[in-house]
Design goal:
By secondary structure, the chain is of the alpha/beta class. It has 7 helices and 7 strands; from the N terminus they run E-H-E-H-E-H-E-H-E-H-E-H-H-E.
Length: about 260
């Protein structure tokens, strides 16, 4: 017997950054579960390709282009996407990138330090995008006094690594933003949560050989002995997008095969 609380049939979801990687995995699961998806990407062609794939699999999806780090662009996206979907139930902020650079060059190593431009770029891509998404779509949620936000963070927020200071700081910021907005919006029936994925390489992006190497490395470093599958983040998002999580807000759910505790 189906569990009614997990049913998201017809739920209207905007997924920012859903054209590839983790975002694509989330989009595929939510569409399979019956949601109507608006996929937004910096590149319209990429968004259209992802939306077309969802429709070919039997889902419902439309595509938009937007710069997730710009509040004005996201406000335009909000107007267009909400109109296209006929309303709004869930926002997923899933834009991110990393950079492997030390803050300053270390003695005895041949390396460049992080520039100011590097810092701002990584913080914008990982943290400002969540701010811009919540700022643009927040008024719709608050006015209707219901809905949910899912921010995609990362285990770097829990276990920072050397040469990843900007990335770790930004992902930690996503967690703090999630908690602050959960408190701010709870009186209006709006929930805000986050997912912190571990290692989830995209097979289409890195190729079979690199995927094999990632799994070999994970076998020695990840307690569960493998990398994550993109679909697994989508399954966590399904829980947070559904009424099964109606009493959950301000939380970050780590899905990393045990890396954050190993």
């Amino acid at each position: 017997m189906p569990i009614v609380e997990y049913d998201i049939t017809g739920r209207r979801i905007v997924l920012v950054g859903g054209s590839r990687g983790i975002g694509r995995g989330v989009a595929e699961v939510l569409a399979e579960a019956g949601a109507n998806i608006a996929i937004a990407s910096l590149n319209l062609t990429s968004a259209q390709k992802a939306a077309s794939a969802l429709r070919a699999a039997g889902g419902k999806a439309v595509a938009f282009a937007a710069n997730a780090t710009k509040a004005g662009d996201m406000e335009r996206l909000a107007r267009e996407a909400v109109k296209a979907l006929g309303g709004l139930d869930v926002l997923v902020n899933c834009v991110g990138d990393s950079l492997g650079k030390p803050l300053v060059p270390r003695p005895g190593k041949s390396e460049d330090g992080m520039s100011e431009a590097d810092w701002h770029n990584i913080v914008d891509i990982n943290l400002t995008q969540a701010y811009a998404g919540c700022k643009a779509f927040g008024p719709y949620f608050l006015e209707q006094r219901r809905g949910g936000v899912i921010n995609i963070s990362g285990i770097a927020a829990i276990r920072p690594a050397a040469t990843r200071s900007a990335y770790a700081a930004a992902k930690s910021g996503v967690g703090a933003l999630t908690v602050a907005l959960a408190l701010e919006w709870a009186p209006y029936g709006v929930r805000v949560n986050a997912i912190a994925p571990g290692t989830f390489p995209d097979p289409d992006q890195i190729g079979a050989e690199a995927m094999t190497e990632r799994n070999k490395l994970a076998a020695t470093r990840v307690p569960l002995g493998r990398v994550g599958q993109l679909r697994e983040v989508g399954l966590m998002a399904l829980y947070l997008a559904s009424d099964a999580s109606a009493y959950v807000t301000g939380q970050t759910f780590c899905i990393d095969g045990g890396s954050s505790i190993g």
